[in-house]
DNA sequence: GGGATACTTCGCCATATGGCAAACCAACAA
DNA sequence: TTGTTGGTTTGCCATATGGCGAAGTATCCC
C-alpha cells in the first residue's frame, strides 16, 4: 500500500505546527523576508529556518534570494489542495447524513400509515 | 508565545498520515469496528490502534466499546474546524489579491490619463 | 469450561521533529 | 577594508512517531 499523496501528507504535517501556521497566516497578507517572519517568535534563526524549509518542501510556500535577503511567498495551490480534501470529505459525510435523515423520515411516514 | 490551538495542531497532525486519512474517509460512510477499519492495511493491530488513538486525541473521531468490539465514529466538528482555518486563510489571501488587481487597474487608468 | 475472537498492553527499535549554540558565508554600508 | 547584517551550516540533544512481536485480557460461542 504505497502512499499516493505525499504532497497532502506534507501539507497537513506542515500545518500542524502553530509557528508554521502563523507564518502562512502572515504570508496571506503578502511576501516577507525570513527575518521579518521570524521576528514575532522567540526561537533561534536556525530553528526558524527549519520551519521555512518544511513549509517549502510541503509546497505551501516558495522562496527566492534577493541579495542577502530571502523573500518568502505563499503558494495558495497547496493550501487549496488540502482544503479540497477536507471539504470533499465533509461533503460525503453530509450526504450520508442527509440520506439517513430521509430514511428516518420515510420510516416515520410508514409508521403513521400503519396506524 | 503559548500555543493557542492545540486542537488544530492535533487535527492537522492526525491528517498528515495516509493511513489515518483513509480511516477518516472510510468513517465518512458510517461507523465501523477497529478490525473492519484495519482490514485494508498491512500493518499490525497494535500499530493500527495507535493511529486510532491519535485520531481520537485529535477529536476527529470518538469510540465506544460494544462487547469486545470497539466502534469508531467520525466527529465532523473537528474536521470542520480545520476546514474553517484553511478556507478563512484562503479567503484572506484572495481578498489581498483582489485589492492588488484593483490597484494595478487603477495605475493603468492613471497612466492612460497622463498620456 | 474451553477455545476462538477482538482488542490491549508491553517493551523494543529506527527515524523524524523541534529546539539550541557556535561557527561560517555573503552582501551591503561606511 | 572592515564591520554589520541576514542568512546558513554544523553538530548536538530530547522527545515524538510509526513500526514490530509477544503476551495479556475480556467477550462470545459451543
Short summary of the structure?
Chain A is of the alpha+beta class. Chain A contains five helices and three strands; from the N terminus they run H-H-E-H-H-E-E-H.
Mean pLDDT of chain A: 91
Quaternary organisation of the protein chains: homodimer
Number of helices of chain A: 5
CATH architecture tag of chain A: Orthogonal Bundle
Query: N-to-C terminal Cα separation of chain A, in Å?
Result: 53 Å
CATH superfamily of chain A: Winged helix-like DNA-binding domain superfamily/Winged helix DNA-binding domain
Indicate the overall shape of chain A: elongated
Assign a percent range to the helix content of chain A: 55-70%
The secondary-structure element order of chain A is HHEHHEEH
Counting helices, strands and paired strands, the structural category of chain A is alpha+beta
- Unreliable residue stretches of chain A: none
Proportion of strand residues of chain A? 5-15%
Number of spatially distinct domains of chain A: 1
Number of strands of chain A: 3
Strand sequence of the main sheet of chain A, in spatial order?
1-3-2
Can you summarize the main beta sheet of chain A? 3 strands, antiparallel
Gyration radius of chain A, rounded: 22 Å
The CATH topology of chain A is given as: Arc Repressor Mutant, subunit A
The CATH class of chain A:
Mainly Alpha
User: What pair of chains forms the biggest interface?
Assistant: A-B, 37 and 37 residues
